[in-house]
Amino acid sequence: MANDRTAICERIMEFIRSEMQDKTIVFDMSTPLEGVKIDSIDVIHVIFKVEEQFKTSVDLPQDAKFATVGDFVNALANFVPEAGKA
Q1: What is the helix, strand, coil percentage profile of the chain, to 5?
Q2: In sequence order, which residues have a C-beta less than 8 Å from that of residue 82 and are 6 or more positions away?
Q3: What is the pLDDT of residue 84?
Q4: Between the CA of residue 24 and those of 21, 63, 68, what are the distances in Å?
Q5: How far is residue 35's CA from residue 57's CA, in Å, rounded to a whole number?
Q6: All domains in the chain, ordered by first residue
Q7: Rounded-to-integer distance, Cα 48 and Cα 70, Å
Q8: Given pLDDT bands bounded at 50, 70 and 90, which one contains residue 1?
């Protein structure tokens, strides 16, 4: 299935990579979010891409904090109806 949770998470990771200034950084779901070196504007761009790609609305709390890339990716994936809840 094209929109299963794994595929959605992989697509969100691609969005993160596209916003990174240093494309040579290798990261995975366990990488600390600060390790990918994206700033708050880049995070907003990732959220906009998720909303556009998956025709959804992302409403994260303003004080949301994410320790790892996986925490951020999973939080965004939870707004995609096809991803289901993990």
Answers
A1: 55, 0, 45
A2: 3, 4, 8, 54
A3: 53
A4: 9, 29, 18
A5: 26
A6: 5-83 (1.10.1200.10)
A7: 18
A8: very low
User: Which secondary structure element, helix H or strand E, spans residue 11, and what is its range?
Assistant: helix 5-19
- Show the tokens assigned to 72: 């951020």
Q: At what angle do helices 5-19 and 69-77 cross, to 10 degrees?
A: 120
How many CA atoms lie within 13 Å of 17's alpha carbon, on the beta-carbon side? 13
Q: Is the pLDDT of residue 81 over 90?
A: no
Q: What per-residue confidence (pLDDT) applies to 23?
A: 87
Q: pTM of the full predicted structure?
A: 0.88
Helix (H, G, I), strand (E, B) or coil at 40: helix
The CA R_g of the chain, rounded to the nearest whole Å, is 12
